[in-house]
Write a structure and sequence with these properties.
Length: about 575
């Protein structure tokens, strides 16, 4: 009982801290009374909190449990994805961000209206909203799983608790409260993951021993270089798919771009992005390593086979119960990290969804002019509405299977076509409204068919063992020896066998190719494009070509003019 009380106190203090941050920003500064302050924090936030916020809004609860489960059941190959971010960071920083900072739009999708028209803007922002709401529901469900496993609190109550707290401090504190709370909650996320690793290391004799035992049982695997796109995880799928995912999230997603825009200038935003990258990689690798630490604990008595838990996402919570339950406060610290990982993502999503709703769905179609005060009221109302919707959808997330794969699939199915539209708009001048709209539509439909269609092959796990379990009777022992029967993957339709890591690549390529071809069928005048809508590399080339063409016309005109003047001064010679 004493441990339970102390754990509750630790968790309560963590949640109270988030609430107090929201209250602080409600009663200080401009008190979130203007749209500029509520959505962009008056553009005066600093590198460290925004960098942590970029990391925290991406590394959510689904990632926390998904990565540990992935490494426990299928090995370390997923760690390779972190290498792709090295290439993705400069692409985001030096190719996409300069364009968005020159424009300074609150909603990133306003760029698409300037470039392709209102229909493309609306369609893309709707796709983003769908993606974000569904991913938020997954995050709430992930936090509920852990809370249910440790405390016995029903999942619905947990989702409501996380959702209500996020709604509260996001509503009253705006983007400043969200970002500063992300910093506070990021520390708790690191602490909870490190607690798992440290406890396991103390039990077996160090971090090196965790790695050695995992390697002995075949969990350390980095050697899959197969090019076959149906291979779930290989160097190619993780590096290429990971890079596209990183660029999609950090360059063309409202949640992340809105954080860049809270910085005072472009240089500060680039510094923030480079600061965020190692934080993200470090936390990702730590979450992966925690899966190995958990495997070492259960290497000879798999809790899935003994039916102690129902899914891999519950492994970390079971580990905490078995190893930290006797240490006062550690279970509360772990739950604080779990709730923090959920609240980081949820609060960021609610704030951005509210901004997109106002900027993309209300203002472009509203005949009446909304005052700044009314806009802020509307934004707060939308935070509440989206929060309630996410909680309701979170209850349905139990049917999606692997949380990591579901979350990454969502980013790919919708993120790929959106990334393609922005890329074409910034770097390919001749792509026009009709071409981009056709490409976006076909890309989204095609990816929804591949991603949500089926049936798909069952995930294959590495061997687990029960020879170290203490069985109560031989009946239980006999049920554990049954090996899952996997249907031959060749019997499935090829498109449904493609790795989910390639979804975003397929979405990008399909949308791009269709948009390029369709744009050729419609006239597009490059002269009508504003140079500010294009990458500086492209706009300079167009301006140079236009200047050369203008100089050629001038030379031709001068040549014709000189020719005519010469004819005028010719003196005819009369015959004598």
């Amino acid at each position: 009982m004493a441990f339970a009380i102390l754990d509750s106190v630790v968790l309560g203090c963590a949640l109270l801290g988030s609430v107090l941050i929201g209250l602080y920003y409600r009663i200080t500064g401009g008190r979130q009374k203007t749209t500029e302050e509520y959505i962009l924090g008056d553009k005066n936030l600093s590198v460290i909190p925004v960098g942590f916020s970029l990391m925290a809004s991406f590394m959510c609860a689904t990632t926390m449990f998904g990565l540990s489960s992935e490494n426990y059941m299928r090995g370390t190959h997923f760690m390779v994805i972190n290498a792709s971010n090295i290439l993705g960071t400069p692409i985001v920083a030096y190719l996409f961000l300069p364009v968005f900072f020159k424009l300074g739009y609150v909603s990133i999708y306003q760029y698409l209206e300037e470039r392709f028209g209102k229909m493309v803007r609306t369609a893309t922002s709707l796709a983003f909203s769908l993606q974000t709401i569904l991913r938020t529901a997954l995050v709430l469900y992930a936090a509920a799983i852990a809370t249910d496993a440790i405390t016995g609190i029903p999942q619905v109550i947990s989702m409501i608790g996380v959702g209500v707290i996020c709604i509260f401090y996001s509503t009253i504190g705006g983007i400043k409260a969200v970002i500063i709370t992300d910093l506070f909650q990021s520390i708790l996320m690191f602490a909870s993951v490190f607690a798992v690793i440290i406890i396991s290391a103390l039990e077996v004799g160090g971090l090196t021993e965790i790695w050695n035992i995992a390697n002995e049982y075949g969990r350390v695997n980095f050697s899959n270089f197969q090019i076959d796109p149906t291979v779930r995880h290989s160097w190619w799928s993780l590096f290429i798919g990971g890079m596209f995912t990183y660029v999609s999230v950090y360059a063309t997603n409202q949640v992340q771009v809105q954080r860049y825009l809270t910085m005072k200038n472009y240089d500060a935003a680039v510094k923030t992005l480079w600061f965020s990258w190692p934080l993200t990689a470090f936390l990702s690798l730590a979450m992966c390593f925690s899966g190995l630490a958990i495997f070492v604990k259960y290497r000879d008595c798999d809790p899935l086979k003994t039916h102690r838990i129902e899914s891999g996402e519950q492994l970390m919570s079971l580990f905490v119960l078995d190893t930290m339950g006797s240490i006062p406060g550690l279970t509360g610290l772990y739950l604080s990290g779990v709730w923090s990982s959920a609240m980081c993502t949820v609060s960021a999503a609610l704030n951005s969804l509210a901004a997109v709703t106002l900027e993309d769905y209300i203002l472009p179609f509203s005949r009446a002019e909304l005052s700044d005060k009314n806009r802020v009221v509307f934004l707060k109302l939308m935070v509440i509405v989206y929060g309630i919707l996410s909680i309701m959808l979170g209850y349905c997330a139990q049917y999606v299977g692997s949380l990591l794969e579901a979350s990454m699939s969502l980013l790919g199915i919708i993120g790929g076509p959106i990334l393609a539209i922005f890329t074409l708009g910034i770097f390919v001048p001749y792509v026009n409204q009709k071409g981009s709209l056709i490409g976006l539509t076909i890309g989204l439909v095609f990816l929804f068919v591949i991603g949500l269609g089926g049936p798909k092959p069952r995930l294959k796990n590495l061997p687990t063992y029960t020879n170290g379990c203490k069985f109560e009777n031989n009946l239980i022992n006999s049920t554990l020896s049954v090996t899952p029967i996997y249907k031959d993957s060749e019997s499935y339709i090829y498109l449904f066998r493609i790795s989910y890591m390639y979804y975003i690549v397929l979405g990008f390529l399909t949308t791009s190719v269709v948009a390029l071809i369709a744009s050729l069928c419609f006239k597009s005048d490059v002269k009508d494009l504003k140079p500010i809508l294009l990458s500086s590399l492209v706009s300079k080339r167009i301006m140079n070509e236009s200047e050369n063409a203008r100089n050629k016309r001038i030379k031709i005109v001068r040549s014709v003019s000189n020719s005519k003047s010469m004819k005028k001064i010719e003196i005819p010679i009369k015959k004598v």
